[in-house]
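FIELD: query
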Amino acid sequence: MATTLTGMVVRSGPDLRVVGGALLLGLAGSGMALQAGGPRMAALLLVGLLLGISLYHASFGFTYAWRRFLVEGEGRGLRAQMLMLAIAVTLFFPALDAGQIFGRPVGGFVAPLGVSLMVGAFLFGVGMQLGGGCASGTLFTVGGGSTRMVVTLAFFVLGSVIATAHMPFWLSLPSLPPVSLVRELGLAPALMLNLAVFGAIVLATLVVERRRGAEAPKPRGRWDMMRGPWPILAGAVALALLNYATLVLAGRPWGITSGFALWGAKLFDLVGIPVREWPYWVARAGALDASLWRDVTSVMNFGIILGAFLAAGLAGAFRPVWRLPLPALLSAAIGGLLLGYGARLAFGCNIGAFFSGIASGSLHGWVWMVFAFAGNWVGVRFRPLFGMSRG
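FIELD: result
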């Protein structure tokens, strides 16, 4: 047995019923993705499934890692994120500079710098700590059997679609044009600058650890590729490589939360709420009419949940808890709303804006990190109000 980074999952022998169910669902999903979008969509479902396995087995969460650094000064999670980003920019920047991979056009996530981005990232950061996860963390913990995170996900979807109704207002606020460091500085300078910043953040975490006397996490046990747990650095490498695979297959990086907005909009439309009249969805009417199995983000999200479900079965750790105290439900609901609303305003989440934004050479990814980190600082201080520890 071993314990995950968050200390929440105790692993034992594989649960063959869960593993079998996950494999059957995976096969069914592959068939639907293949029918709706062809081999490329089926391959993206597989990439999502591998992301789910990697996130679960490495317990690769942004929320817990940032909280550990804010509260304890322990920076192992942040260092793993910097390794992930370093690998990603090394792979992404040459492809984005060329504009193609293997003859297929590719583009990054490059977004404006404005009030919407800053407010959205801050709200998302608060939501991370109240909701108990980020976008990727919500998906892999739902797949791993967390019933509390199902509540977070439901309100994440609700907050996302509500934000789309307000987008004309937020986009009318002061903003600067998108800035691509690759385009503005050139390939080599942009790459060297980003790598230098990653290195500076790693050194800063080491200095903070020494000054605050932060304790290193306990060893997580023997590394088992199939059953887990994985070293967090292995998760960092896997996520970087799988994001690059997404760029190759989809022509753009990995994203998560636009899928949540689409799920919510389809539900609103189904019950008669006039989302089709909202400017955000007028420009995306085709997505409302099409199958979710034709939406790259949704298909990969399904894959992440399935991958985590499979990983939990392999670890023998799929044990949902059905009774949740009211404070936990309230924090999940409030956190989910903030996560969904903030992600739309900020043009993405910890994946689409932070990870894939920085991997795309977009300055908005760094701005997102600063304001989301500030939001996490505030969110940590709200956690005791809901019966949660600050650590």
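FIELD: remark
The longest strand covers residues 100-101.
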